[in-house]
Amino acid sequence: MNDLIDCGLETGLCTNCIHKGGFELLVNEMMNKNVVTLKPTDTIGKAIQLFREKNIRHLPVINEDDHCIGIISDRDIRSAVPSSLLQFEEMSKVLNQTVDTIMVKDVITVHPLDFFEEAAVLFNQYRIGCLPVESENKLVGIITQTDIIQTFITLTGTDQPGSQIEVRLHNQTGQLAELTRLISNENINILSVLIYPDQIHPNDNIIVLRLSTINPLPVIKSLENHGVEVIFPKLKEYPI
């Protein structure tokens, strides 16, 4: 946790420190371990029943060794059963087909000890709705887009009462530590810190801070008095 102390963050999480100092947000901490699954010989009708009963959108298909060999989504079901106007015989034939005839077989998986960010990259890269989690070729969990969004909300502290400010800092050692020290002097806790490169000023970073106060005005005044450029919100936006 040394890097968390170095950056001055007393509560919450600095995203630059996730991989440092022993703090790691892993897939294992966010995945759903109670996974509803199918066998390849199960029918489409059973899949539809599970989707409705469990209120889920994805079903991993596993073999006798609990290895994930396919994925079925509610979209796959809609494609397989295109119309409710099908004749009974035709509908019955579709519902009795086995799920291995419609499942996605090129399954992308992650390991329980993979980092959250690596899983998020896979969601974005492959435009998928879920990721089975496997350890030693056995399904142990699943994460969905909803899990990714919920984790991001937790990381940024937006599920807690507070306010947000954005400042511009030079990309130099010690700048972030000094910033958080100034905020700490105002007896305000930092819920989260996000850092990204300034697209206009290449040598600067934009620092987005979530603060545990609904009135950031004293913090903004203090930062500006110490020469820190606050780019959001501006003091003039507050009634004096």
**Count of DSSP E strands?**
9
* Count of helical regions: 8
How many separate structural domains?
A: 2
- How much helix, percentage-wise, in residues? 25-40%
CATH superfamily of the largest domain: CBS-domain
Rounded mean pLDDT is: 87
Structural class by sheet pairing and helices:
alpha+beta
Major beta-sheet overview: 5 strands, mixed
List strands and helices in order, with pairings.
Blueprint: H1 2-6, E1 13-14, H2 44-54, E2 58-62, E3 68-73, H3 74-80, H4 88-95, H5 116-126, E4 130-135, E5 138-144, H6 145-156, E6 163-170, H7 175-184, E7 190-197, E8 204-211, H8 217-225, E9 229-232
Parallel strand pairs: 1-7
Antiparallel strand pairs: 2-3, 4-5, 6-8, 6-9, 7-8
Would you give an account of this structure?
The protein is of the alpha+beta class and 240 residues long. The chain has two domains: 2-23 and 160-237, VC0802-like; 31-153, CBS-domain (Roll), CATH 3.10.580. The chain is 30% helix and 22% strand. The chain has eight helices and nine strands. It has helices spanning 2-6, 44-54, 74-80, 88-95, 116-126, 145-156, 175-184, 217-225; strands at residues 13-14, 58-62, 68-73, 130-135, 138-144, 163-170, 190-197, 204-211, 229-232. The strands form three sheets. The protein has a five-stranded mixed β-sheet with strand order 1-7-8-6-9, with helices on one face. Strands 2-3 form a two-stranded antiparallel sheet. A two-stranded antiparallel sheet has the order 4-5. The longest helix is centred in the middle third of the chain and has 12 residues, at 145-156. The radius of gyration is 24 Å and the shape is elongated. It starts with a helix and ends in an 8-residue tail after the last strand. The relative contact order is 0.16.
